[in-house]
């Protein structure tokens, strides 16, 4: 089965059909295959246009009918080439959108994992326990400050006596 018939008949994997659609990787691969196929067709048409132009020049004024036929074929090929250009632009846009949505999905999954990890970390924490702990820390800092103040004051016996 050719790539084109696979593309239009949906020759995807059985796994993708069971899941209800292709995976982003499968879709991206198919879009890239289609881009390659259209690019090759583009090259083929460009060479055909050059050949028809050469035929038209060759016949020039000697055989106007053959020259006109060559120019008509050239015009048809150019029309096909323009259609392929439009199709390639559409496929490129779709591929970029799919890549962006896949990236966004991965970012969202990772953010979910991070949220679950944070929930697990905070699971053992109780706000009342944290508040009590912070009060204990504040009390101990006050005690340490009082001790520091007591030690740093000069022991001045002379300050206690009144003349």
From TrEMBL:
InterPro entries: Snf7_fam
Region forming the signal peptide: none
UniProt region (Disordered), positions on chain: 1-25
GO BP annotations listed: late endosome to vacuole transport via multivesicular body sorting pathway; protein transport; vesicle budding from membrane
Pfam families: Snf7
Domain of life of the native organism: Eukaryota
Main location: cytoplasm
Similarity section: Belongs to the SNF7 family.
One GO cellular component term noted in the UniProt record for this chain: cytoplasmic side of plasma membrane
Swiss-Prot/TrEMBL keywords: Coiled coil, Cytoplasm, Endosome, Membrane, Protein transport, Transport
Transmembrane segment boundaries: none
Membrane protein topology class: Peripheral membrane protein
Localization: Cytoplasm, Cytosol; Late endosome membrane
Gene name of the encoded protein: Chmp4c
Name of the featured protein: CHM4C protein
Gene source species: Regulus satrapa
PANTHER family: CHARGED MULTIVESICULAR BODY PROTEIN, CHARGED MULTIVESICULAR BODY PROTEIN 4C
